[in-house]
Amino acid sequence: MANRSYLYSTNTIPEPNQDDSSRVLTGISEYNYDIPIAFKVLLSGNPQACLSVIWDSAEKIALIGDYASGVQNLEAFLTGITLPAAQATIAEALEFLKMPENQNQYFILECGEIFEMSETPVEAQNLALLNQVQNLQPEIEAAYQSLLSPAPVVSEQPKPIGFWTKLFGRRSTPPKALSANNPEQAIYDLGLGLWSNILYFDFSEDDEDQD
Q1: Percent of the chain with pLDDT over 70
Q2: Phi-psi group of 68: left, alpha or beta (phi > 0 → left; psi -120 to 50 → alpha; rest → beta)
Q3: 33: DSSP letter
Q4: Cross-strand pairs, 141
């Protein structure tokens, strides 16, 4: 199983000894081995550390933020992306996030599996993530840069074919030129295009009804 970050929407802030019977948890997205900037932007509406809804821990190892403000912040971020290849993915993201059945009062971001990849205490990593979410501008600018095409690279001339190469029939190969950015990969790296209500940790009512 891949270590993932998980994004849900929810109607309550997790508290100790809380009655979970009225809590709603709707799957929004998950991402392998990283916490993409789209998730961070969506958490940037009045973010705070909170208890996890996945892992039983007394420490605040998750983040929660205002849903409506988060979507508004993401929309502002996406407005700055003019890459033609990204426009359909951007429209899909906003359509999904504005669907009534996906909207709740809060987003909750669960990164426990990502934190497990480091030896730093989990709660300390979550507080560091909170600080990132509260100060996203440098990361936003880096994300915009990642979508720009690189400058052309002039490759070196291939070396002449030597005597022994001719004798044994092998040819020299020129150095690999730097490839242009892959637009689809760059868009994926932002955390777009991965929207789903069914995540690995699934809290849908359908599963509860089947018990």
Answers
A1: 81
A2: alpha
A3: T
A4: none
